[in-house]
Structures are given as C-alpha cells and as structure tokens.
Write a structure and sequence with these properties.
It is found in: Cytoplasm. Keywords: Cytoplasm, Protein biosynthesis. With 198 residues, the protein is α+β, with helices and mostly antiparallel strands. The chain folds into 2 domains: 4-39 and 120-196, Topoisomerase I, Chain A, domain 4 (Orthogonal Bundle), CATH 1.10.132; 47-114, Gyrase A, domain 2, CATH 3.30.1360. 59% of the residues lie in helices and 14% in strands. The chain contains 4 helices and 6 strands, in the order H-E-E-E-E-H-E-E-H-H. The strands form 2 sheets. The protein has a 4-stranded antiparallel beta sheet with strand order 3-4-6-5, with helices on one face. A two-stranded antiparallel sheet has the order 1-2. The chain is elongated. The model is unreliable at 1-7 (pLDDT under 50).
Length: 198
C-alpha cells in the first residue's frame, strides 16, 4: 500500500495540474479577446482588420492573409497584393460583403483600402462592441474559475484533499482570476483610447 505522504504529494500534483490547466484556458481567453479587439476598426490601418474575412478561393473559404501580402504604407491605408492575380476579384468581393464598411479600390494589381475617419456615432457603436467583447472575456474567465472550484470541492468531498488545501487552491485560483480580469480591463482601456483618438 502507498504511503500517505506519497498519496498527498500525488493529489497536490493533481491540484496543481488543474490550476495550471485553468490558467492556460484563461490565457487562451485573453488571446481571443486580443484578436477580437484587433479585428475591430478603430480608425487606424492594421492587417488584423482583415483577419476574419474569408475569400472563396477555388471553392474553399480562405483567409485573405493566406492569399495576399498585406501592407500598411500609411496610417489610414491598407494595400492588399494577391500572390495569385486571379484571386483579386474574389478578395474584393469578400471585402465588400464583410462588415468592415470600407469600399475597396482595385487597379487590377493591388487592392487599396482607405480607412475613413470614424464618425462620433461609429465610435459610440464600437465602444459598445468592445465593452461587450471584454465582458464576454471576463465571464469566460469566471466560468473557468467556477469549474475549477467545483472540481476542487469534489476532491475535498472525496477526501482527496484537506479543507486547508481546498481553501489555499481556491485562493490561488481567485488571485489568478483577478489578475487576468485586470489584464482584460487593461486591454479594454487601450482599445477605448484607440477608438476615441481623433
């Protein structure tokens, strides 16, 4: 029969793994929030604006960045240069269909996207969207925290971990949750400043 110290070290290793996995999932949530923020147009030209645009390339939905070189020659201009000239029209069509609200200008070789100044109304709408995305991120992180805590409580009920270990682990998870929610708040502040910049 295994010694008690071996059992407890195995269990605390399990607890650490659960907490570590939760942290990984929370960090993935932050990456999703960052990507969502990057794809929102805030008056500046950035290749990330095109991340969600899928082009029908020979019947296969393909991201624009896999079909073309995207450059930012000026603060308010994106230039898309397709590697396969025959995909130019499809890229143009995909941009027109998207929710970017930008009309592409093509010269048959490259597509230019002039990023217009944001209207005050559009800024207000964007602020709502950004706040909603940030809140979705916070909720996702809190849900991960809840799941981990339920997992830990189950261990405690089964007698695998002590009350003290449960409390300590839950405190660690709470600190991690607070830290990562603060990170989302920081990302939100930066994005809001970007949107309100005239």
């Amino acid at each position: 029969m295994a010694k008690k110290s071996e059992l407890t070290s195995g269990v605390s290793l399990m607890v650490k793994e659960i907490v570590k996995e939760a942290e990984g999932n929370m960090k993935k949530t932050i990456e999703v929030v960052k990507k969502e923020f990057a794809s929102l147009r805030a008056g500046r030209a950035t290749p990330a604006l095109l991340d969600k645009i899928m082009v029908n390339y020979y019947g296969t939905p393909t991201p624009v960045n896999q079909l073309a070189n995207i450059s930012v020659p000026e603060a308010r201009l994106l230039v898309i240069q397709p590697w396969d000239k025959s995909s130019l029209h499809e890229i143009e069509r995909a941009i027109m269909k998207s929710d970017l609200g930008i009309t592409p200008a093509s010269d048959g070789v490259v597509i230019r996207l002039a990023i217009p100044q944001l209207t005050q109304e559009r800024r207000v709408d964007l602020m709502k969207v950004v706040k909603k995305k940030a809140e979705e991120g916070r909720v996702a992180i809190r849900n991960i925290r809840r799941d981990v805590n339920e997992h830990l409580k189950a261990y405690q009920k089964e007698g695998k971990i002590s009350e003290d270990e449960l409390k300590r682990s839950q405190d660690d998870v709470q600190k991690m949750t607070d830290r990562l929610i603060k990170e989302i708040d920081g990302l939100l502040t930066i994005k809001e400043q970007e949107i309100m910049q005239v």
